[in-house]
Amino acid sequence: MKKNLSLIAYISLAIALLNQVFVIAFVKPIYSKIHPENTLDELAYIIITICVVFLICIGLVGLIFIIKNTVKSAFVGSIILITLGVLLMCTLISFTWIFGSINIILGILLITVGSIHLKTTREYL
Known about the structure:
mainly alpha, elongated
């Protein structure tokens, strides 16, 4: 992966992973401030935590493939970036809008970086 694309991918993956940690830490207090009459169910909190852990695992796998920096591993890493971008864009429905809007921006960025890398390196495979 080119240096400028990999730098954008590293930064956006780091922000996405940090945002997922913030979701786990702050989704319950934010939900109770927005909706003081009802609290977040334990089942809903468990579902959100499972989704966040799944997104973190996909992000770490993508980061490992991008850091490897061979042609095939960067190709697989860019496919994982596109997948993570699509999954991050769907989180507005399940998370609060504060974290969901950040995830949508990062999802668009990850899809863009992954597709640019796929377009430029497909002839090397």
